[in-house]
Amino acid sequence: MGQQITIIEAGRTFAALAEDRGDFTDWVGAGLAVKCGGLKVVAAFAGEALPSAETVTALVITGSHAMVTERQEWNETFSGWLARVVTLGVPVLGICFGHQLLAQALGGTVGDHPGGGEFGTVTVQLTDNACSDPLFGGLPNMFSAQLFHRQSVLHLPPGAQVLATSPQEPHQVVRFAERVWGVQFHPEFDEEIMADYLTFSREQLIEYGFDPAALQQGVRITPVAQALLQRFSQLTAGSNSLRSNFRSTL
Hints:
disordered C terminus; 250 residues; Rossmann fold; 9-stranded mixed β-sheet; 10 helices; 11 strands; 24% strand; alpha/beta; globular
């Protein structure tokens, strides 16, 4: 069987935006750019049954408008399953909510961002740990990314390494295990989606103390961040053989 990546749908975008541009899983799927039949979407947030962890060869966890600290029932079930997937050596990429859920499932803590959050286009800076990383190695030391979050990973789980930071976020990119990554930014967002998010959330942003107009003016293209999904797809294309080698050492 060819490459297959499982996308865990952790939530959905604004209904009006979905009608025009599609949803999180559509954007993630487009970014992964796998062959027809190479994606499997599981609406975990809606109660869809999770596949056996042993059958998953690569995994992406989407963002969500929910908060990890709400500890929804599906989150609790999913966290145990996710920890098993990580133990099996499956390549995993968590995005925003998915990044935070990974941290929590593996023993870290998540909570409200001390600075109120990050919204709009932000500059991300790689750490020295990223130089030899198979997913982030070779990327520019600094690049722009789209951010929209009020909660963050406050404390890392044991063994996690920070691969990138931003001015307000010390855990912008984290490698949680050998082939398990979490990114606080949204690699599936283009500049138009980012602008739409700022428009739809204008009143909330004002309540949080942000200037929506200034954030809109700061929206930029993010080609490096957007290329990350395809890099992950290419990296995991041979995950079946790599995973077999990993499991033989368990």
